[in-house]
């Protein structure tokens, strides 16, 4: 796989609740991480005292974060409203030359910042709120 352009990793939100996904505008940095809890089933009979894990068990989760500047009133307003209403709409994450992750996420953090002689910025964090799908490219 060749090097990829970071700006091609996109976070999209179902803007109207009807499956029409729109890129969250103004993001400069984005990140997605996947996690799976392990379930330790080590016992006195474990070979050589090595830890044993129960395959397929444990809770899976994903988190998304991003930061950027205000560029689009519609997506800025949607992100803010999602936080205050506690909604869990569909999101898509486009990972260049890899695929698309899609599913419900909740906005768990929304931060605003600005300096006297600089642009207003925002940061947001999302946590998966249900089953995710992945479609490879």
Account of the protein in words:
The chain has 137 residues and is mostly beta strands. It has one domain (6-136): Pnp Oxidase, Chain A (Roll), CATH 2.30.110. Helices cover 9% and strands 45% of the residues. The protein is built from 1 helix and 8 strands, in the order E-E-E-E-H-E-E-E-E. The protein has one helix at residues 73-85, and strands at 10-14, 21-23, 27-36, 60-69, 90-95, 99-113, 121-128, 133-136. Strands 1, 2, 3, 4, 5, 6, 7 and 8 form an 8-stranded antiparallel sheet that branches. The protein starts with 9 loop residues before the first strand and ends with a strand.
Secondary structure elements and pairings:
Blueprint: E1 10-14, E2 21-23, E3 27-36, E4 60-69, H1 73-85, E5 90-95, E6 99-113, E7 121-128, E8 133-136
For the record, the count of structural domains works out to 1
Q: How confident is the prediction overall: mean pLDDT?
A: 90
Question: At CATH's second level, what is the architecture?
Answer: Roll
Largest sheet, in brief, is: 8 strands, antiparallel
Count of discrete alpha- or pi-helical segments spanning 4 or more residues = 1
Q: Measure the end-to-end span.
A: 12 Å
Low-confidence stretches: none
Q: Which class in CATH terms?
A: Mainly Beta
Total number of beta strands: 8
SS-derived structural category: mainly beta
Under CATH, the topology can be stated as Pnp Oxidase, Chain A
Search tags:
single chain; 137 residues; mainly beta; Pnp Oxidase, Chain A; 8-stranded antiparallel sheet; 1 helix; 8 strands; 45% strand
């Amino acid at each position: 796989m060749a090097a990829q352009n970071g700006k091609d990793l996109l976070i999209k939100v179902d803007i109207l609740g009807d499956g029409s996904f729109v890129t969250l505008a103004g993001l400069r940095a984005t990140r997605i991480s996947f996690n799976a809890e392990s379930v330790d089933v080590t016992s006195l009979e474990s070979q050589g005292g090595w830890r044993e894990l129960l395959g397929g068990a444990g809770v899976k989760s994903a988190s998304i974060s991003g930061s950027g500047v205000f560029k689009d009133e519609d997506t800025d307003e949607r992100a803010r409203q999602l936080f205050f209403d506690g909604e869990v709409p569909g999101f898509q994450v486009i990972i260049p030359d890899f695929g698309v992750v899609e599913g419900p996420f909740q906005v768990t953090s929304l931060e605003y910042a600005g300096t006297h002689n600089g642009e207003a910025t925002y940061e947001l964090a999302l946590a998966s709120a249900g089953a995710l799908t992945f479609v490879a490219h």
